[in-house]
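PROTEIN DESIGN WORKSHEET
SECTION A - STRUCTURE
LENGTH: 303
TOKENS:
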């Protein structure tokens, strides 16, 4: 086991017994929602995983320790600290460990720490990807590189609709990452169920997802698998409304000179404001939906 890694007793016991475990990121706690909604949501997501037969392992960096499984107190700490906590991508982990600092994990770092701990399935909201205008800015999320090299299944509601979805799919294809649609032939776009872009394969049961991931591992592939799970229809947003909010948020982002890892939190927070909070409720519902599917798939994988 990595010398900097702490696995929570419940998570460790489940892994040793071959029981299903699902990893969860912590950036959604610190950067994705305001307090106390962030803590309430994190605990609801953990409970959803338990209700569907698996053990939750929320992941973060606390005092320089890589944590696979957080206590309620640690989740509360991240929720209250909010954006004062470092949004930790791959490049940040050595500095956070050396400085004994706190970090909220992105998709990238959650995958890294989950893999260290032996956790094979991870549920999140949406992945990062190729940002609009990346042909000049080169702004491409580290999430895509991590999917290409770390053998963890990521269950999400597609790539965030603030991104260039077509280029994101092209990048994943180049890296050999299979993009699976759960119950859909079309890539979901986070707040909406459709994007106009197709997925590589459609799968209609957690058992089939588990079989496909098992085959990928047994074939010796190096990277992970991306499962895109559409937001439940009753919580999906009107495409016209969300697209207008995103376009305005993108203009403001450029005008204010926001760039790098601050881009996504800025855009998502602005979209929440522009939609009168509707996008926040959609965000919560899609995360819960992804957690349930990830738990069922983890259970099928360990059956």
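SECTION B - SEQUENCE
RESIDUE ASSIGNMENT:
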């Amino acid at each position: 086991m990595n010398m900097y890694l702490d696995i929570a007793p419940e998570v460790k016991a489940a892994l040793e017994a071959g029981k299903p475990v699902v990893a969860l990121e912590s950036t959604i706690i610190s950067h994705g929602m305001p307090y106390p909604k962030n803590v309430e949501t994190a605990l609801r997501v953990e409970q959803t995983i338990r209700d569907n037969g698996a053990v939750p392992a929320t992941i973060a960096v606390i005092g320089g320790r890589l944590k696979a499984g957080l206590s309620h107190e640690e989740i509360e700490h991240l929720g209250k600290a909010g954006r004062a906590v470092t949004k930790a991508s791959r490049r940040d982990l050595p500095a956070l460990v050396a400085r004994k600092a706190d970090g909220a994990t992105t998709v990238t770092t959650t995958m890294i720490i989950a893999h260290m701990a032996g956790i094979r399935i991870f549920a999140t909201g949406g992945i990062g990807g190729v940002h609009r205008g990346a042909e000049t800015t080169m702004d491409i999320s580290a999430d895509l590189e991590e999917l290409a090299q770390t053998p963890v299944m990521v269950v999400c509601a597609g790539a965030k609709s603030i991104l260039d979805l077509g280029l994101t799919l092209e990048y994943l294809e180049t890296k050999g990452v299979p993009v699976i649609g759960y119950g859909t032939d079309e890539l979901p776009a986070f707040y909406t169920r459709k994007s106009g872009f197709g997925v590589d394969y459609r799968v209609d049961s957690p058992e089939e997802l588990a079989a496909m991931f098992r085959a990928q591992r047994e074939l010796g592939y190096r990277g992970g698998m991306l499962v895109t799970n559409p937001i439940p229809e009753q919580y999906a947003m009107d495409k016209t409304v969300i697209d207008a909010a995103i376009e305005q948020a993108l203009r403001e982002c450029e005008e204010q000179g926001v760039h790098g890892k601050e881009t996504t939190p800025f855009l998502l927070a602005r979209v929440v404001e522009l939609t009168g909070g509707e996008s926040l409720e959609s965000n919560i519902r899609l995360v819960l939906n992804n957690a349930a599917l990830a738990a069922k798939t983890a259970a099928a994988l360990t059956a």
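SECTION C - NOTES
The chain is about 50% helix and 15% strand.
The radius of gyration is 18 Å.
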